[in-house]
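Model the whole thing, not chain by chain.
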Amino acid sequence: MIDTLLQDLRYALRTLAKSPGFTLIVVLTLALGIGANTAIFSVVNGVLLTPLPYRDPSRLVVVWESKGTSNRNVVNPANYMDWHDRATSFSGLELLSWTGLTFTGDQAEEVQGRAVTPDFFVVVGATPLLGRTFNAEESRPNSPRVIVLSDALWRRRFGADPTIVGRAVPVAGGTARVVGVMPSSFRPMPLGHEEYWEPMALDWSNRARAGRYAMALGRLKDGVTVERAQTEMSRIAHQLELDDPAFDTGWGATVVPLMEQVVGGSRRTILIVLGAVSLVLLIACANVANLMLARAASRERELAVRAALGAPRWRLVRQALVESVILALAGGAAGALLASWGVHLLVRAAPPEVPRIADIRLDLTVLAVTALVSMAAGVLFGLPAALSRSGAAIQDLHAATTRTTAGVPAARLRGALVIAQMSLAIVLLVGAGLLVRSLRQLIAVDPGFDPADISAMTITQPRPTYSDSLRRVAFYQRLLERVRNMPGVRSAGMISWLPMTPGNAVTSLTVVGRPKPAPGEAPTAAIRLVDPGYFDAMRIPLKRGRSLATTDRIGSAPVAVISDAMAHKLWPDEDPIGQHVKVEWWHPTASVEIVGVVTDSRHDGLDAAFEPTLFYPFAQESQQSSMSLVLRSTLPPATLTRMVRAAVSEMDKGVPVADAVTMYHHVAETMADRRYPAFVLSLFAALAITLAAVGIYGVLSYTVGQRTREIGVRVALGARPADVLRTVLGGGLRLTLIGVALGGMAAGLAAGALGKLLYGVHPVDPLTFAIVPLVLVGVALLAMAAPARRAARVDPMVALRYE
Amino acid sequence: MIQLSNLDKSVSQGNGRLFILRQITLDIAAGEFVSIMGPSGAGKSTLLAVLGMLDGDWTGEYRFLDHAVHAMKPKARIALNKAHIGFVFQQYHLLDDLTVAENLDVPLSYRDIKKSERQALVADTLDRFGMVAKKDLFPRQLSGGQQQLVAVARAVIHKPSLILADEPTGNLHSSQGKEIMELFTELNRGGTTIVQVTHSDLNAKYGNRIVQLRDGWVVQ
């Protein structure tokens, strides 16, 4: 058995080496199909299949607050403390909030971090690479500042200094003592890119409720399910509603498995891409199967002789399969090489929203799956040829020894394979077409501001240095003055939360003069702090009243400008100008006068609805330490960064300035979740259509080759080249059209899976479903042109003499 | 060894059927050397294919070594073929990508024979046919006569009791043809039954009986 298998192997290798052209085409085709699959599978493996790098990660959950449709809302610390005291489902429940730190020294650097309750590292089950994590002492309010560094920050900023533990490093406002360094395998928590951790100073004796800004992370006790924890948390949230109706009415709690929190939104996209790339592999297999069938036809005599010499059918099948599997493994190896490059490309092109990018790699699991896929592909594309030819050889040995052309079943099989390729290509093309159309629709959406020539950069004042509100405002006002006078800058403004930036700042408010709303019923609005020049710089027109003015400063009567959506929501039949509101967030008691209404602009992405927004003069609101500077200028962002950094440095070397980005780029980033699958699917669709074109070219070339004598006879009998052309093209076109019809139906069924990835385009978009078949038919006709022309040029004398 | 009785072979043609073999009744005893002759299209090669169980689409009766071939399923016919019959074709039909030794090994490898035993058989056969020096050559490196010699060696290596040869010298010049026919005579003397299809009266004389076919009928 083994020695005959080795014999088959040796023979297959020799045969393949004898036809290098055929071998190369098959290996390349498979390399493309398997390579693309391997690359995408490495994403699936890294993101969806590999457990999170924490101890027993399946027991980790994130607990959010929830209200209405917002079921993953940030958490109020006092509510967390009550959860912590009352919940029995968790062996540990910790609180995390987003924070930042400015490292000072030669180069000031703003770094994102997380403030965590002391047992956070115990709950996730992580041990530091160096030093230790926090103790309870360090988590008390007013304790000396201590931090734990990430591996990346330790290497980048401190040159992987092994003596860093215990050292006080300079930060804005003093120093922070490094107590530990986490290993590189320790990943940031979801919704952040933290590079250090600091203790969260919670005052457990004070349960006054104000503001929601943190997330809770829990470890379920053994035997406790997510559902049971959810039931308990809902019960506790209901108790809290009764305990503090003013703050908690309408608020619940949501328990989300950590894995779901990390990858949830991307799962669908990744699976769609995996589905698409599987179709590419199927098309590649169909192509290779067709090539193998053609080749098997030319080796019919050999199979017949082997059968005549006593080869049982399974031996003929095995021999054909050995050859296919060798080809597939070679294709798999070449595919793995392509994939190593492809993974690099995918990771580089991936938007930051793609979770667990650091876990995407070509590892042994992926390579093992590649090997399995290759073997399966080998069997898949080798089987039709193996079965059809060995069957023919055994059933009618005599005929097989004398027949030279493909039999009817083989020809039908080849036709069926072309139809399958065309159908699969249509599905991919429709998918890509819908996503691209959707993207175009989205790009055409008016953001409500003019992003042309706008660059933005974030400037963060270190809190300890700028604890005084007047100082804070004065710094930004001086900076704005300098920036506006810079050559090449046409206008400039500032905003606390740049449009199209993930996350939001929302506050509830009450309208002065109206009855106090029931608990939980107060209207809400996004709140933004801006300087008076912001609307001008962004070209957001004023609709009514006045804009903000430089006279709106600390000490003057509190005023605000609102968006059109807010005017419509709160004063649908009244003039909002002159109305007063009380904003819960920062000034719950101050009465803020509405002085103007500006047109709506989008904050949460081009696909988001206009949100009621309240623009507050930043000179009146002095709590904000981080502001985004927007500049209308044709100068490149790098130049603007350099100019602004120089200006800031002259004012205060300790204030970090982030790199400038163009507003176009910033807006485009919000479309990344759609752009990425559209890009990948378009790439695969292009691959699919190329493979399908090669497929129909191959079939037609082969058919023309087989029918040379028949065509010669036809021409000799008076057929014109046009008649021959029509006959040949007609055959190819028939296969294409059947494929298009079947593929169209399949695409109609599959398009629904794109779901939320589509914007402004119906899954069965008539335009896409009309254009895609035309494109495919056009490409197929181009592919058929060469063999058809060859047929039309058949010289009857040469053809007949040849036969 | 072989008894054919009222054997018909036809193929569909238009609305009717075209008969290739008609009412063939023929006995061939073990140890005979039979030559089938007749003009082109007489059905000689088809009869050979039927005898060799390469063609199973016929009616009538065929007994081979007391096996009722007409009642056997294709798989059983193949097994019977495998056990008792060796083929020699006019075009040699050697496998181009295998060496001489490997070509000889092919029929053995399909018969569940141990590797060591196969190697011994191949070595013996190479020696017997005087092809030891050529064992590593590929068919394209051999002359037509040498190729047919390999084909005959391949046909007899598993010691069949019946050799069916379809125009075995058709592609050879006379001296090479003579060599092959002498080889058949020698095999026949050793007890192997031989049935050959030939156009050549000279080659037919090597046998001890001639069967004439015309338009599918046995005429002599």
